[in-house]
Write a structure and sequence with these properties.
Elements lengths: L4 E4 L9 H11 L4 E4 L7 E5 L2 E5 L12 E4 L7 H10 L1 H4 L4 E3 L8 H10 L9 H9 L10 E2 L2 E3 L3 H11 L3 E4 L26
Parallel strand pairs: 1-9, 2-5, 2-9, 5-6, 6-8
Antiparallel strand pairs: 3-4, 7-8
Length: about 200
């Protein structure tokens, strides 16, 4: 197996500067491809040429114009957040292919309202947990991301990602949030996020 996959994760509780590390790594190591599995309840920031950029779903590695970009199946998208993120970073995103796994669900206002109603602590109230719950329960009402400009869900996602893994020198897995926020962290529950935070 080719040893070409790198992962940057936060071993603490988030907000430890992953965005800065990811952006620097993508540029200085000239990463060929990057994948993120993010939700709108967290964000990564990177400062480039005096400009502060915020990424929520799109890989931070977008700061390297040569890096191929993937949004993985662990992601959840709020279209309002994605559109704002895209427009704020249009100068480096416009015209670039961004490949999305076809099973990335969409947050709707009902998810946000349900989270506000049911969870009293340990949440950002972005609707991630109810949306993820519907995906787990195979709820027929759940909608999935299709496309926004040059960001598109691709039924050939796995083949394209495997091609990148086999042909690239450096592929970066961009971690989201922090391990101490992981759903199964007994020391911080219920102040946790809605999933297991790990390299996998």
């Amino acid at each position: 197996m080719k040893e070409n996959v790198y992962a940057i994760i936060d071993g603490q509780a988030g907000s430890c500067g992953k965005g800065k590390v990811i952006g620097q790594f993508a540029i200085h190591e000239d990463v060929d491809a990057a994948v993120s599995n993010c939700m709108p309840n967290a964000g990564h920031t990177f400062e480039q040429n005096g400009r502060r950029r915020l990424f929520r779903n799109i890989p931070v590695s977008a700061v390297n114009p040569r890096t191929k970009l993937f949004i993985g199946p662990g992601s959840i998208i709020d279209m309002n957040v994605l559109e704002q993120e895209y427009e704020e970073n249009k100068d480096i995103l416009e015209g670039r292919e961004i490949i999305v796994h076809p099973l990335v669900p969409l947050i709707e206002s009902r998810h946000i309202e349900e989270e506000k109603r049911r969870i009293k602590t340990g949440t950002t109230f972005k609707g991630c947990a109810p949306c993820l719950s519907e995906k787990i329960m195979r709820d027929p009402n759940l909608k999935f991301f299709k496309e926004y400009k040059n960001i598109k869900a691709d039924p050939n996602y796995h083949r394209k990602f495997h091609d990148v893994l086999n042909s690239s020198e450096k592929v970066l897995v961009e971690g989201s949030q922090g391990c101490n926020l992981s759903l199964n962290n007994v020391n911080t529950h219920p102040n946790v996020t809605s999933r297991i935070v790990s390299v996998a």
